[in-house]
Amino acid sequence: MTATRIRATRWPAVRPWIGLAARLGLATVWLVAGAAKVGDLAASGRAVNAYQLLPYDVAMVVGAALPFVELALGAILLVGLATRLAAGVSAALLVVFVTGIVSAWSRGLAIDCGCFGSGGQLAAGQAPSYLPEILRDLGFLALAGFLLIWPRTPVSVDGWLTGESAVEDDDE
Question: How far apart are CA 162 and CA 124, in angstroms?
C-alpha cells in the first residue's frame, strides 16, 4: 500500500474527530468571550465604541448584543446543532473582528480589542498587541473554515437528528 493510499484511508476516520475538536474549541472561545462580557454590557459597548467605526449609540447596542451572540454561538456549537450555519456566522464575525483590529492598528489607535473582556482605550504608556490578536482570530477563523467544509462531527445534535454517523466505517 502506498503512503498516499494510507493517508487517504486514514483521513475519513480522523477527519470527524478533528472536526469535533474544532467545534468544541470554537464553542469554548465563544462561551468564554461572551461570559467575560455579559456581566458588564456597558463596558462591552465602550469597547466597540473604542474602534471609532460606528456612531456611539450604535456601538453601545452592538456591544450590548455581542456577548449574547457569542454565548448563543458557543452553545449551538457545543451541542453540534446547525454546525455549518454556526461556523458561517462565526467566520463572518471573526472577519469583522480581524478587520476592526486591522483598522484600529492602521489608524494608530491604542485600544484593547475587548475580545475577552471589557476592552477600550489603553492607559497612557500601554502598547496595544494587535498582531497576536489578529493571528489568534485567524486561528479561530481556520477552525470555523474547517467546520464550514466538514460540519459533520461525532457527538452532535446534527448527527442525532439526521441519523447519520460522522465517523466512516472501515469495513471497505
Answer: 55
